[in-house]
Amino acid sequence: MAPLIIRLADIRSRKDLADKLNVDIKSLDLVVLTKTTCKHDGCNLPAAQNNHNQCILCNQQWYPRELNSDGTKNKYCRGYGLYGPQFMREYNGVAAPKSCCCDTEECLKVGYSHCGMMMFPPDDDHRKEAVRVLGISCPEKKASILANSRSHHRIAPWHYDQNHLRKNDNGNWVIRKMATYTDSDRKTFNFAPPNGNIQRFVENTILPMGHNTCRGGFDIMPPWVKELSALQTSNEEFDHPTTTPTRGNKAQRVTSTTTAPSLPRPSRKRESPEKAQLRVMEERAAELEAKLNSALSYNQDITAKVEVLDAENLQLRFENKKLAMENAELKRKVEVLEQKKCVISYDDLKPDGILADYVSAFTFFPDFKANDLFLDLINGNSGICENIKRYHHVTVEERVKYNDEIRARKEQATQAGVADGNEGEAGEDLDVIMAEAALEEDGSDEVMEEAPVGSAQKQTRNRKMHWKTEYLVYCFFVRCNISMTRIAALFGIRRTLVHDIVYGWANILCDTLAKFFPVPTRSQMLRAYPKSVIKKFGHAHIFMLLDATEIFAEVASMKSVNAILYSAYKHHSTLKWLVGCDPIGTVWDDSISDGYPGAVSDPIQTTVTKILEQIPFGCAVEVDKGFLIENDCALLGIHCIRPMKMLQGQTQQSKEDVALTQKVGKTRIPIEQINGQMKNSASFFDKRISLQQIRLADLICRCSYLLQNFKLGFIQQHSGMKKGRPCKAHIRWYDGEDDGLIDIRPFVEMWGTTSEIRRWNEIREMPGNEDLTREQISEMVLAEDWPTRLRKEHIERLS
After folding, report:
1. Which residues does residue 165 pair with via DSSP β-bridges, in sequence order?
2. CB within 8 Å of 586: residues ≥ 6 apart
3. What is the mean pLDDT of the chain?
4. How far is Cα 286 from Cα 12, in angstroms, rounded to an integer?
5. Is 410 helix (H, G, I), strand (E, B) or coil?
């Protein structure tokens, strides 16, 4: 490489120097002069560190570059971001002990760390998780790290969140000791995870150190420039490299002149002290003028920013004044309400009430009329909602007895092969301890309300408030996510009474809605089947769409409890529910499992809850990729429709697997929608579930899911023109009709098993059945309950 002819004394700014040397301006801070002289012939300037023993004019390779001259990736490019000499391999005469073991480009751009390197956590699970979040792809490196936590592999500090680090007395980064570590995505770890944002670390920690460019508005030259300039000035000739040809070799002098044109030779006459002082002053004046111009430009930028900030500050003051006036007005209204001792009641939902415009925000229904009809429906003729016993009046023995009776009824229904309570009026034969009449007095909390609300039925026990107002208390707690103490203040009651109302109504709604929504029969399912599912799969065998939903819970202080609540998917303590629905999004009581800890997997929870036993023999369940339940389905004689996962080493799925994935994705929308509707309607789950309210959360989750049946179904091929559409419960259990649905019963080939199709043809060919319609024959086949008979034979054959 030919040396550059540059007179450093004439350079006035860093930008000019970088342009002359044809290097990055940030690389000027990386120049470190050594004690050795440049190895280039005739050059007596000191060599730069990491520059192949040459000065900066003879060679410009003292800093790492990302790309080679031919455009290929440079093998030794670590630190090409040029954030400072402290990130080069050698700093202050000391070489960096190790480089970071990650494979990320951002870490390669930063360089080496001379302020400490982090080791992998000693725990095997923590180390495995650290390798995952760090993104190490090399199999040999990953195996070496997982085999030994004390291996030679290290992690650079910029991979960590700044809140998880601190500097020790030596100025090195170390991990701060904390009980738990929370990353930027609000995920909690028991160790410091190396998943921090490197760019944010650079902006907050490295860049504030800054380069010398325009620091404080001045363009400060690197200190080594003055040293090299002084050496150039002391030479007899400014030509670089300085060659001294012999007098007898004229050809050599001609060659030197033609190949390396020299700079103008300075005068050999000795300069007077006055002229030398004047020249120094002129140079100083030029330098100060350059600094002044840079400072004026910087000052103009600062002035413009100050003007913008002043305008924003004025706007904020105006808004603050406006908000203060609104706050004062609200405080005045609150004081007026407190003086009037105004409390909320169910009457406030009426068209002339203060909550008339916000009924849907506080309850599960859009208007007062719908809420009133719903309450009268679940109350029934027996007045079950009017006789709810206070929760703290129910003894432990009564609760155990009640749970045993519920469990016995479910087992009896399972053994009989039919769901309990499919027929009869809702609320009939409902042996609920929470609804037993309680006529005893209970102090000030059990006084008769002066103004009855809504219903004209006679109260059967003394109560603080009307039973419909109690329903509104429950809605406030679930829908608005308000604490029991604040609800007590709004309704003018004690907190203990709010506690009893919430628990009592959660129990009564679960038991009552379970009677309204039993497991649908095959006839009910086939009577209104979505056309979109038949179009995608070519049959009507899908009976249930199954999915799991997780909700955050509090982190337990006991490690054993935290271990079973911790979800590897959510990276947090969670409670997990399995939920099944039909192809239009209708749920029933048995399709909602109890809450399980987040550590349980989807297949295990499916096996333990026995939720698949509700699906008739020969039908199908549609699940997501994580539900590996084919074996459980085979034992019960049902089909599992699940998209295929990518196999190990597989780069692309087959055409059949891609088509199946698309079919499942388009037809599983109802179960995703029902999960979202439940969480939107129950703001109680917006916060972390308290470990003391796990049972209450289970009841609220079940109630909230069942209440979604009063909403419109999710039908993909709906025309959108029909008015007065029926809800999902009306369609599924009460013969409702809607666009996009079809009665598939006449077409037995679309839904029947081989035995059912054969039996259907036999009935049709029997004498006297010529006048029967296809629907009537299908109902006769469905009434024979072939799935129960076939499943029994299937289980006997397997055993």
Report:
1. 175
2. 517, 520, 709, 713, 728, 729, 731, 732
3. 82
4. 9
5. helix
Place of tokens 């700044």: 162
d(Cα 174, Cα 753) in Å, to the nearest integer?
A: 67
Judged by DSSP in three states, 48 sits in strand
User: Contact at 8 Å (CB) between 137 and 130?
Assistant: no
Alpha-carbon gap, residue 521 to 512, rounded angstroms: 19
How far apart, in whole angstroms, are the C-alpha atoms of residue 688 and residue 567? 14
Instruction: Name which of 3, 5, 8 is nearest 226 in CA terms.
Output: 8
- Give the whole-angstrom CA distance, residue 566 versus residue 40: 66
Render 53-103 in DSSP notation, one character per residue.
T--TTT---SS--SB-TTSPBPTT-TTTT---GGGSSEETTEE-S--B---
| Tens digits of residue pLDDT in 629-652 | 999 999 999 999 999 888 877 888
Give me the residue label for tokens 């935290």: 562
Q: How far apart are CA 245 and CA 260, in angstroms?
A: 13
- pLDDT higher than threshold 50 for residue 182: yes
The answer to whether the beta carbons of residues 142 and 194 sit under 8 Å apart is no
What the block records as the tokens of 347 is: 């009457």
Q: Lowest-confidence range among 223-227, 443-447, 729-733, 782-786?
A: 443-447
Complete DSSP assignment for 649-707: T--S--HHHHHHHHHHHHHSHHHHHHHHHHHHH-GGGGSPBPGGGHHHHHHHHHHHHHH
Q: Where are the alpha helices (DSSP H) in 566-668?
A: 602-609, 630-636, 655-667
| Helices of type H across 341-438 | 359-362, 368-379, 396-416
Model pLDDT for residues 558-604, shown as the tens digit of each residue: 989 989 999 988 899 999 999 999 999 999 999 999 999 999 999 99
Percent pLDDT > 90 in the chain is 32
- The residue among 613, 639, 631, 642 whose CA lies nearest residue 798 is 631
Tallying the residues shown for the chain, one arrives at: 799
Q: Which two tokens stand for residue 41?
A: 């012939």
* pLDDT classification of 253: cutoffs 50, 70, 90: very low
Name the residue among 98, 175, 79, 78 with its Cα closest to residue 130. 175
